[in-house]
Write a structure and sequence with these properties.
Layout (H helix, E strand, L loop, with lengths): L1 E8 H4 L12 E7 L1 E5 L2 E5 L5 H6 L3 E2 L3 H7 L9 E3 L5 H4 L9 E5 H7 L7 H4 L4 H10 L5 E4 L3 E4 L2 E5 L8 E7 L2 E7 L5 H6 L9 H15 L4 E5 L5 H4 L17
Parallel strand pairs: 4-6, 6-7, 7-8, 12-13
Antiparallel strand pairs: 1-2, 1-5, 3-4, 9-10, 10-11, 11-12
Bound molecules: zinc ion (ZN).
Amino acid sequence: MRYGTRSAERSEIYLNYRLYGEADRVDVMDYFVWVVRDAGGVTLIDTGYNIRSGGRRGRTMLIEPPAALAAIGIGPTEVDRIVVTHGHYDHTGNVEAFPNAQVIMARAEFDFWTGPYANRIQFADYREAEDIAHLSQLAGTPRLVLLDDTTTIAPGVRARIVGGHTPGQLLVEVDDAAGTVVIASDVIHYYEEVERDMPFAVVSDVPGMYHGYEMIRSLAANAGTRVVAGHDPEVMRRFPPIAGHPGLGVMLSVV
Ligand SMILES: [Zn+2]
């Protein structure tokens, strides 16, 4: 579901953009959360930014993520689990709006954002202290589950630790009747990253990011796999709209 948007210059999007010798221009960057709903319950993949954290950064909020869920009939207490794919502000807001949800993230990611380097200028702008404090409050309770390796978090739903963009960036694979939907989150923000091997500007480990692109390519080579990029407006064109809610998001699979 697309909840936010902004414009950004390509020199802001791609790491060392001058290396490509191409003219700069403005691209659209969209913001999404993803929902897996089946007999196993409701899994929310990322929770978006909130009004405060997005507003302070000049982002356009199209619909607050909890309201987007409500629009498709999912109340805040019906979310069983939340995968926080990484610790950036546009993925960690609103967690407190879902009081019954177990929160799942990579241990390396949690340790990084609660550790000594998160406040350094190269990282601090991307983390929202209030959100990290909320995640920290869940630490040590059954509501926070920290992953050390690829883990099946619900029937047919796997979280895979990739890294690159951040130390414990996750992607989520969801099996359906046609194959697998790969929710790449920020392993790739744009399809162009993997198509042209162009690392994203915000990165904690460049070889790790290239490795993530290789992983996406190898997953995409499997018949029936659909890859969903984390911030690409192309997502809204590649997949059909949610029935009855044009513009709110896309349907990746219907079983
Ligand atoms: Zn993001």
